[in-house]
Fold this sequence. Notes:
Elements: E1 6-8, E2 14-16, E3 19-20, H1 21-28, E4 32-36, H2 37-54, E5 60-64, H3 73-79, E6 83-86, H4 89-97, E7 105-107, H5 114-123, E8 127-130, H6 133-145, E9 150-157, E10 179-180, H7 185-194, E11 199-205, H8 216-236, E12 242-244, H9 262-280, E13 286-289, H10 293-296, E14 300-311, E15 317-321, H11 330-334, E16 340-341, E17 352-357, E18 366-373, E19 381-385, E20 405-410, E21 413-418, H12 423-426
Protein name: Diaminopimelate decarboxylase
Binding site for pyridoxal 5'-phosphate: 248, 290-293, 390
Pathway: Amino-acid biosynthesis; L-lysine biosynthesis via DAP pathway; L-lysine from DL-2,6-diaminopimelate: step 1/1
Amino acid sequence: MLYDNLGVNDQGHLTVGGLDTVALAEEFGAPLYVLDEDQVRANCRTYRQAMAEWMPGGSLPLFAGKALCFKGLYPVLEEEGMGADVVSPGEIYTALAGGFPAEKLYFHGNNKTDEDIAYALDCGVGCFIVDNHQELERLEQAAGARSHRQRVLLRVTPGIDPHTLQAINTGRIDCQFGVPIETGQAAQFVADALSRPHLQVEGFHSHIGSQIFEAAPFCDAVDILLDFAHAMRQAHGFVARTLNLGGGFGVRYRESDPTVDIPGNIRALADHLRRGCETKGYPMPRVLLEPGRSIVANAGLTLYRVGGVKTIAGYRSYVTVNGGMTDNPRYALYQAPYTVLPASRMGETRDFLCTVAGRCCESGDLIQEKVSLPQPARDDLLAVLTTGAYNFTMASNYNRLCRPALVMVRGGKARLAVRRQTFADLVACDL
Ligand SMILES: Cc1ncc(COP(=O)(O)O)c(C=O)c1O
Ligand SMILES: N[C@@H](CCCC[NH3+])C(=O)O
């Protein structure tokens, strides 16, 4: 099995966190997002412990809410000692509604509107990650109007290609996030920021991409950031106390994916940073990381009911499920790999090769191709693994499908954390 928290019970049903997935689907309906809270907590601890052990005091993992965001998650993150990366007022609102402390929020976004800036300042968000000059200017004005000095990090692009999918690669120079170092623009950005009396510049942020399995691309980013930080010290006497290296450690979607040694990567990164600082005589900064996927992806799975099987003679067989790109757009967007299991028939031989398709009016609405299942029948339950990240948050109401419920599992008990949408929810904003 791909993960230790999965099992098969006497009835041949897939279990998650010790709970029968067939019983979960009967109780809460399908499609259903299931999130193993114990696994989320374990993932948080992996980061917390490794960062506490290998990195300077004050170093902290910030959970990236873009990967998963609902009220009930934030008390868990808070209890596990995480900070949080938020990218919109909606994410700020959700985190605060979940009782998360505003000062542990780091506010991202490449186009924060004046309303967003005002809202975040009034909420007392701890740190802004400033993306560009225009934001610097508006943030300076808004902070000044409140007689407040706002902590900020400056987002720079180190020009690293970590060889992940182009669509999820954000560290290269030619992108809409941050200010590039190589072109000299980041140096002007720093000079501008340092001249603003209501902004307290703490250091730099970079994010090189997502689904990265090793420390090496992050070490390359560190080299570039340290050279840059050193140059900024020479130019302005400014010393960065914080280096935020963004998100990106990968997860295993399939058995064939490499395993990721997160503590080992964190240690390698810390060692690399320490050596770089020693060489340059630069004070070792505290480190922030922004893991999203690697905190929640492997804690989540999605349960679907099979509707039918259609074999196109001479081509292939489609198995349709009662969800699809509305609850998981990642295959349609990125041809993302997933492991699909016959949750209600785990003991049977999987000799039926098929494409699992969703129910939207869209030929690209596929969950996965080349899936092996027992000869499927209507009402079978399928589980798609590793859907804890970027499924719930990227879901839509296309075709006016209701979004699924989300159930959290902890210590052998399940509780509803997000209820299923109703038809009334679908028309709630329609006047
Ligand atoms: C700025 C930033 N931080 C953090 C993340 C989270 O990345 P991941 O989910 O790969 O850990 C992303 C998304 O890639 C991001 O753009
Ligand atoms: N949403 C993407 C990753 C983008 C991450 C945000 N920078 C995914 O599902 O993989």
